[in-house]
Design goal:
It contains 15 helices and 10 strands. It is of the alpha/beta class. It folds into 3 domains: 32 residues; 213 residues, Spore Coat Polysaccharide Biosynthesis Protein SpsA, Chain A (Alpha-Beta Complex), CATH 3.90.550.10; 121 residues, no CATH class. Strands 1, 2, 3, 4, 5, 6, 7, 8, 9 and 10 form a 10-stranded mixed β-sheet that branches. Strand 1, helix 3 and strand 2 form a beta-alpha-beta unit.
Length: 384
């Protein structure tokens, strides 16, 4: 069908009664979908993903509105990930790239965007899923709000067996809502803090040009490189959100978070990076939201010191002291103001070299014992 003919399909001059009304409606939808057609890539970064990669691929391929391409970027997997992707079931439907050396998830996400050839890109993690009508609703939302270059849908939570363990708070609606970039960044951060997320990594669609140049994933953001990206994307575009769960976020022991033995260290370093960034004045977040991020940095730095002293890890203790000094250098007095009363003696007793000191060890062991008693009491009350 020529574009001249497509453009001629307008309601003016058509009859407006009976079955003709339905025909007009269908013709207008056809006209809009052709003139405003965007292309969509679903890209799956993978690393030793043999347990779940098949399910992720099936969810990407079984869309009611087919993806224009499905790509897997294999980050040096040593298991059967590659064999599964090259299996007859997926032959001819998936483009496969293998990277010989693993470089971490932030670099993998950026490479994924670079390999995609469509206007918009969804990065689907190897253990997550997309609802069959995900792309249908995303495309429909773009027709309603063509100005948006970043869109998201809410997601459900599933376990290793694919059973739904939680759903986002109601109301759920497939109707898209347009937010300013500033509104979106605020809403996203509040979701992180309250653990009631407006979305997670699956179910997000972003314009490829944004991913490649204006707002790439930053490796320096560490464990929260995804949160860092979502809190910056609003600097470049308005955002469309869909509250209907159209993706599934899998929580299991083998996930990236589940494998982190040094979670407090990773999070403390990541949020100190956020303090540095937002202190430059280039943040889209308001002052109140930036203060919330600063508090998270203090919280995880404090947890790192506690764990370093409790488990006699002098390297953790030393790193906590270094990070605290950095916070004090950027925001003088803030950490001391935000520390809970029970933790302030820790910073006085902690040896500046990161080594061992009897008083600090005794204090931490006493705190740990009290916490265990508290948790036991709560458990008993919960059973009753």
């Amino acid at each position: 069908m020529s574009l001249r003919l497509v453009r001629s399909l307008s309601p003016e001059g058509f009859p407006t009664s009976g079955n003709d009304t339905l025909l007009i409606h269908l013709l207008v939808i056809l006209r809009e979908s052709i003139l405003n057609k965007n292309t969509f890539s679903i890209v799956i970064p993978a690393h030793n993903g043999e347990q779940f990669i098949r399910a992720a691929l099936r969810s990407a391929l079984n869309q009611t509105r087919s993806a224009d391409e499905v790509i897997v970027i294999d980050d040096a997997s040593a298991d059967r990930t590659g064999d599964i992707i090259r299996a007859p079931e997926f032959r001819g439907q998936v483009t496969y790239f293998y990277n010989k050396h693993s470089t971490g998830f932030a670099d993998a996400w950026n490479r994924a965007a670079g390999k995609a050839g469509s206007d918009f890109v969804t990065i689907l993690h190897q253990d997550d899923l997309l609802h069959p009508e995900y792309l249908y609703h995303i495309e429909k939302a773009l027709l309603s709000y063509p100005v948006a270059r970043h869109l998201y849908a809410a997601c459900s939570y599933i376990d290793a067996d694919g059973n739904v363990t939680a759903i986002p708070p109601a109301p759920h609606s497939p109707e898209p809502v347009l937010y300013s970039g500033k509104e979106y960044a605020h809403n996203y951060l509040n979701g992180v803090i309250t653990n009631i997320h407006i979305h997670r990594c699956p179910g997000v669609m972003t314009a490829r040009d944004l991913l490649l140049s204006e707002c790439t994933y930053r490796k320096e953001a560490g464990h929260i490189a995804d949160d860092d990206f979502f809190m910056r994307i609003g600097m470049h575009t308005d955002v469309v959100g869909i509250s209907q769960p159209l993706a599934s976020y899998r929580q299991h022991a083998g996930s990236a978070t589940g494998q982190l033995d040094l979670l407090s260290l990773k999070l403390a370093e990541a949020y100190i990076f956020q303090i540095r960034f937002h202190h430059t004045g280039s943040s889209i977040l308001n002052a109140e939201d930036i203060t919330k991020i600063n508090r998270l940095a203090v919280r995880f730095t404090n947890a790192l010191l506690f764990q370093g002293l409790l488990y006699k890890r002098s390297d953790w203790t030393k790193r906590a002291l270094e990070l605290r000094a950095e916070v004090d250098g950027i925001i003088p007095g803030f950490a001391e103001q935000e520390l809970p009363a029970w933790s302030r003696p820790l910073w006085v007793l902690a040896p500046k070299s990161g080594g061992s000191r009897l008083a600090a060890t005794v204090y931490v062991q006493a705190l740990h014992g009290l916490r265990q008693m508290r948790d036991l009491g709560r458990s008993v009350l919960h059973r009753r």
